[in-house]
Write a structure and sequence with these properties.
Strand order of the largest sheet: 1-2-3
Number of strands: 3
Shape: rod-shaped
Pfam family, one: TadE
Largest sheet: 3 strands, antiparallel
Distance between the termini: 101 Å
Protein name: Pilus assembly protein
Organism: Lacisediminihabitans changchengi
Radius of gyration: 25 Å
Keywords: Membrane, Transmembrane, Transmembrane helix
Structural class: alpha+beta
Order of helices and strands: HHHEEE
Length: 131
C-alpha cells in the first residue's frame, strides 16, 4: 500500500508548472535584458562614430561632433544617456583623426544600471583642405 502511494502522480503537475514557469520567466527576462543592453550599446556606438565623422569635416570642430553625438543619443535613447560625451584629436592607425568617446549607464535591470558602465569610442579620419 505504501508503494502505491509513492507512485501516485496526482497533484504533481501544478508544482511542476510553477517551477518550470518561474525558470522560463527568468530566462526570458534575461534574454530581453541582454537585447536591451546590446541595443543601447549599438545605438551609442553608432552615435559616437557619427559624431566623430561630423567633427572630422574640414569646417567643423570637436564641439560640433560632441553636439551631434548628444543630439543623436538623446533622440534615440533619451537625454540621460547623452550626458558624458567627449571628443579629442588623436591618431588612429597612424592617421590624424577625431575620437568621440561616450560613457553611458549600462542597464542591468530594465533601464536602471551602473552609471558610466558602458564606454564606447568612435573614430574618423581628419579631413583637411589643401590649397
Amino acid at each position: 500500500m505504501l508503494s502505491a502511494v509513492r507512485r501516485d502522480d496526482r497533484g504533481s503537475a501544478p508544482a511542476e508548472f510553477a517551477m518550470v514557469a518561474g525558470l522560463l520567466t527568468v530566462l526570458t527576462l534575461s534574454v530581453l535584458q541582454l537585447g536591451l543592453a546590446l541595443h543601447i550599446r549599438n545605438t551609442v556606438l553608432d552615435s559616437a562614430a557619427e559624431g566623430a565623422r561630423y567633427a572630422a569635416l574640414a569646417d567643423n570642430g570637436l564641439a560640433d561632433g560632441v553636439q551631434r553625438s548628444r543630439d543623436l543619443i538623446a533622440a534615440a535613447l533619451g537625454p540621460d544617456y547623452a550626458r558624458n560625451v567627449t571628443a579629442e584629436y588623436g591618431a588612429y592607425l597612424g592617421h590624424p583623426s577625431t575620437v568621440v568617446t561616450v560613457r553611458t549607464p549600462l542597464p542591468l535591470f530594465g533601464l536602471v544600471g551602473i552609471d558610466g558602465g558602458l564606454e564606447v569610442s568612435g573614430h574618423a579620419a581628419l579631413e583637411t583642405l589643401d590649397r
